[in-house]
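Q: I'm teaching a short session on how sequence maps to structure, and I want students to see two examples side by side rather than one. Could you give me a first protein with its sequence written out and its structure tokens following it? Keep the formatting plain so it prints cleanly on a handout.
A: Of course. Example one:
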Amino acid sequence: MSDPRSVVGRVARLPRPTLGRRAASGFVAAVVLLCWHGLTVATDVPSLLLPSPATVGRTLVRHAPEMAPHVVYTGYEVGLGWGVGTGVGVLLALVLTVSRPIRLVGAPVLLAVQVVPVVVFAPLLILLFDATLLTRTLIAALLTFFPVTVATLDGLRSVPAGQLALLRSIGVPRWRRVLYVRVPNAVPTLVTGLKLATPVAVQGVILAEFLAAERGIGHQLLSTAKRFDTALLFAYVLVLAALGMALFAGVAAVERRLRGDATGEGDLLEATGVLGTASVAIRGTSGIAAAALVLGGWQVAAGTTALLPSPVGVATTLARFPDLFLTTSVETLAKFGVGWSVGAATGLTVGTATALVPRIRSTVEGTLVGFRAVPDLALVPLLLVWVRISFEAAVVLVAVAAVFPVAVGTAAGLRRMPAAHADLLELVDAAPGHRLALRFRHAVPALFAGVKLSIVRSLAAVVVAEWFVAETGVGVLLLQGMTNGQPALTFAAAVVLFGLGVGLFGLVVGVQRRVSW
């Protein structure tokens, strides 16, 4: 008689029929189009608010000649920013790997910036360099630079120590150890970084075109929203979504060729950016040295141009208007709190359903990956038409930013319970509640990774919302300083946002450390 535990194990691992991710994404797109069409027919909603897919399609065909130059220009900016950010990111990762002194000082700065909304640099760059192609390229490069650097550094630093020790023992030079051991080991994580960098490069260009441009998809999105040319607005949104997904698919195709297969379910966290922090130990002394270096460099640079306030000038601005910054911080946190709570709850529900219902897994994961490839900023002009400038519009944008990382972190985490544990629970016929509790115990690291990324993305969404669809908050001060030529105000608001980002991220880290199972 066979061992019942082995029978349970085999039954638990029986393959279940699921759609492939590409087929699932196509299926979801078809369902969305059908629901969109059905909604316009059933509710008879005015075309000014929601044009039908057929109307948008006809508009896209009719206006294609005038849309093409804007699409090409945005693609050109994305390509420049992505290329510069990728190149600099890889070079810096190599420098941080081979030089311990530089790593001790540079790694804390790199990781600190990772936990704050990088979009705050956009008004700073526009303020310093004016609204030019160079500025928009720098914004895209800056947003691209961080994920590429962190992912590449992860790969370069995760080489088995025995391999390096072996080559070191026979006198192989450092540059050859890097070239023949570290670099090949870093290729998979580098590609992961490129997958993360592609949508944020698009996002950076669109954001820059929102703020300061006279052409490009971002400029056209806002201008058509202001004219209430909704059909053309939807056409540009579809083109932007297609551009983002095409670039993401191109990098994913390169990854499949390098790995010899599509990314598996277990890699979804890394492939979509929920996990990705450089495995570099940071000591207190190195953090202090990094802070001193940043402040010193800032002070020196401030002496070269009147557009860059000194750290003392920024501190003076903060000290002169404490009530202003406190009030706007509370307003920003209110939008963040409501939006993030709604988005995180939705993501937790979607992720749990994805992990526990295998039949929908491929469909949902394909949708999540596609959703990740489309810039969140595409919602801004739609919200201007549907909700106008309001607290609710900001909450929607923040909630959308929070859904994806929490959903992916939850789904991947709930699938990390060892098979032996699942078999044992099946054998003793454990209650469903006990099984779910055990799954969540194993899901804690991945779940909190998703939560931490959602904090960063949601705070960035709050800032963007306060620029375009809200009237109050620290983001408004940041933008006012740029438009009114008040660099001290702009930098002071950026410092406050930096503090909010570090505080929120630290709060999540503290909660994670207190969770013990």
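Q: Perfect. Now a second example for contrast.
A: Example two:
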Amino acid sequence: MLQKTPKILLFFIAFTFVLNLIQSSVTELLLDEAYYWYYAQNLAWGYFDHPPMVAWMIALGSSLCEGELGVRLLSCVLYALNLLFIWWLIDHPKKDRFTLHYCVLVFAVTLMHAYGFLTLPDTPLLFFTTLFLLAYKRFITNNTLLNTVFLGLVMAAMMYSKYHGFLVIIFVLLSNIKLVFNRNAWLSVVISLICYLPHFLWLVQNDFISLGYHLSDRPNSPYKFADFTLGYIVNLMALFGLLFPWVYYALATTKIGDRFNRALVFLTYGFIGFFFISSFSRKVQAQWMIAISIPLIIITFNYLAEHAKARFWILRLGLANVVILLFLRVWLITGSVLPIPFETHYNKAWTSYIHDAVGDMPVVFENSYGNAAVYAFYTGATSYSLNNTQYRLNQYSLDNSEEAVQDKRVLYVSRYLNKGDLEFIGAKGEAYRGKYLDSFESFRKLQCIIPQEEQPIKPEQEISLKVYNPYSEDIDLNKLKFGVTFLNKYKRVIETQFVKVMPTDPQALYVQKKDTTTFRLSIPKPKTDEAAYLRMGISENGLYLGYNGKNISLK
């Protein structure tokens, strides 16, 4: 197939590959990219927010190259392969006549363009969505054992990239429901499940913490049409920039045709419908729909190959889109062409400023896993994200990074300090202060367990509270203060109150190591009627109240 690929396309792929390598080398990391680099420092079968594929990519790339290029190397490779595989998925008999239109079309797709060099979970999801469609097309054309195994492996890889991969599989299956009677289709599912078993076991061992966060614990906001549903429609348009009218018109007018084309249509409408419904309950981020870029590129290309007017406008609007995207690429690097601060700007400057002041002293960042990861990446020094009840749990809550800063002299960095020993401006223009703490000590892994947590709790109700201490030393109760965080029905913090707790054993002076200590407390009455949930937290050594318990419904 490579021999039949037009030379102009191969030159275009080579050009974009080199361009992305250069962009990767000279653009500072996004905060999330640094966070995923932090994942890659300890390879595992899963992480708090996502499956492990993005970490595996970064680990492999960083073993071959240093710095930002190492983080992004595999993204550049996958993008180049993606351009080739999408071309192979197109069956139109006149496609070689419109190779230039194809190059402009794929290079003008906004987020796909960005994921040509940025390393985020959507980067491998895009690639493996294309590979999945390629595998599916081979499978329905020639139902062999080799194609069956290939399909199963790719389904697993897609799920290892991002949980949204499940939607891709489901909507393609719905387009060809007869697959439920196909033994080889079931065999491919079994193969994918066997490959996915290590991540599933990781989820079990960690109480399905990733799924719990995404499906239940993630804060939300009251429904607003402009922010939710209209914002979702705007994001659908933003996926294709100036091309969006032609792309969605091509979708609306395309005929189902064969089984593969049917899969493309079902996949696209499935995503659009699923997230349209979701937009009535939460904001839908643009990257959540990124998988539909692949089928829509194929559908749009097939349409332009048949319609001269579409070719005229797609070529010109696509080129205009490319110019805008290239302008934004320059802005990502320098920050000078637009007066808008962004997180790829000045990270080297502020991390260097802190490191010059404190040397290799550990730095603790309050409520910022991104800043903690960026600081570690650019300085090589120890950092930690201390998450309190006003923030959210993340990988720093799950791993053993807290151990590296215990009992050390640290710089404690926060946006909320009234005064500090040093001040600086972050990449987004936010003001931070840092103060020195001579002997930092935190116990954010203490677990507050309310035995009756499956049932709603009344304010002013006396309850039993179990505190499990996973640490290897007893913890003096004099170092701890307990509190209750009240959340509204959207699980956003609205109030915190400290509470008095009494150990059921009056002689208890410590929370025993590797053991559970039981307390009694009376739940205070919230000051507002908006309270719908409560969450227990612990403040240690005067630090802000921690995130130590689960959200529990209030009566």
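Q: What should students look for in example two?
A: Point them to this: The CA atoms of residues 173 and 390 lie 41 Å apart. Also worth mentioning: The mean pLDDT is 95.
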